[in-house]
Structure formats: C-alpha cells, structure tokens
Amino acid sequence: MPGVRVWNFLFAFFLVVIGTAAPLRAQSGAADQVRSVLEKAMDIQTKPELQGPEHRKERAAQIRKLIAENFLSGEMARESLAGYWEKLSAKQREQYQALFTAIFTDSYSRRVLDFLKRETIEYPGETPEGIYTKVSTIIMRTNEHIPVDYILERKEKKWMIRDVIIDGVGTVETYRNGFGAFLRNNAFDALIQRMATQKRAGEEL
C-alpha cells in the first residue's frame, strides 16, 4: 500500500537522522581544541632545538603565548574573586585582572615546563555543563594515570579554556579559596601588593 511505503520511508529517514545527529551533539569540537593546545605544548617541550636549560626562557615565551591565545584569563580572574568582584572599582578590577593573568600564566607555564613532555593522553569525551563544555583527559604514564578536565566556553567561533581541573581540584577554585581566606583578614590593597610580589617572583621561570 502506498501509505505504508510512505510511513516506512519516513521512519527509516527518522532513524538515519537520529543516528547521525547524536554524534554531532556529543562532539562539539571542544575536545579537538584541547587536543590541539596540548599537542602544541608538547611540541614546544620536545623540539630538539629548544632542549636544555639554556633554552628554557624561549620555551617559556612560546608556552605563555599559547596560554594567552587559548585561555579566558579575564573570566578566570573574575570568578576567582567571587563575592568580592562586585565591590571593586573599575580601576581595581583592571589591576587585579592584569596581576591574576600574569600569575596564572607564570604558574601554568612553569607546570608545563617542569612536568609536561611527550605524553600519551586519552580523551574519554566531552560533557555539556550549561553554557560550558567539560573535556576529560587522562595523562597515561607507566606508574600513574592523571585525570585532567578542561572547562571550555565558545567565544567568537572558537573554544576557549576557562578552567583546568587536575585530579579533581579546580584551578579557579584554588585561587578563590586562597584569595578569599586572605581577604577575610586583610584589605584588598594588601592582596594587590602580595600579588605584585608574587608576579615579580614568577617572572623568572
């Protein structure tokens, strides 16, 4: 019967659409972005011409550039001061963001320089979390497996990293807890002075 053939065709078409659409929803491209950033970091770390302590500053400069291009340090700064941010003036916010960005970049660069080489990294998948996407990775080493999750946000057609969670501990949360504890007993200007001192100390990687 013609009616039965039409319904069979529509049902088959529906199955094809569902079967092809599900993977598209599951893979947004965020995992590919994380993979790209990590591959570039490992390339910097393993270039033969950049090996040795005499080339550490050159590697550090390239890693800093990679971080600047792929991390939302401004948003990370704001979230790291949750509960205090709204009370700051525009000048204080600008000053804090600049210092936070420098400190975070230096800290993350040092971590890459000291610990990341040519790694075997697994990518179990990505998970939507509201307007963000979490990309799960596992650094596979002989004696340990290190879970590292990346929280990404889509900005102007590009996925940008706004937090890194290492072994269950979030970077932004760590800063927020530390700065919050300090501000409960000290003025904001004291925090700025402390961050400026930390920035100067961190400039030598």
Concise account of the structure shown:
With 205 residues, the protein is an alpha+beta fold.
Description:
Strands 1-2-3-4-5 form a five-stranded antiparallel beta sheet. β2 and β3 form a beta hairpin. With 205 residues, it is α+β, with helices and mostly antiparallel strands. α4 packs across α5. The chain has a single domain, classed as Nuclear Transport Factor 2, Chain: A (Roll), CATH 3.10.450. The protein is globular and about 45 Å long. The N terminus is likely disordered. The protein starts with a helix and ends with a helix. The protein contains seven helices and five strands.
Key words describing this protein structure:
about 20% strand, about 200 residues, Nuclear Transport Factor 2, Chain: A, single chain, globular, disordered N terminus, alpha+beta
- Main beta sheet: strand number and arrangement? 5 strands, antiparallel
CATH topology: Nuclear Transport Factor 2, Chain: A
How far is the first residue's CA from the last residue's CA? 77 Å
Structural class, please? Answer: alpha+beta
| Rough outline | globular
Question: How are the elements arranged and paired?
Answer:
Layout lengths: L1 H25 L3 H17 L9 H15 L2 H8 L9 H26 L4 E10 L2 E9 L4 E11 L2 E9 L2 E2 H13 L4 H15 L3
Antiparallel strand pairs: 1-2, 2-3, 3-4, 4-5
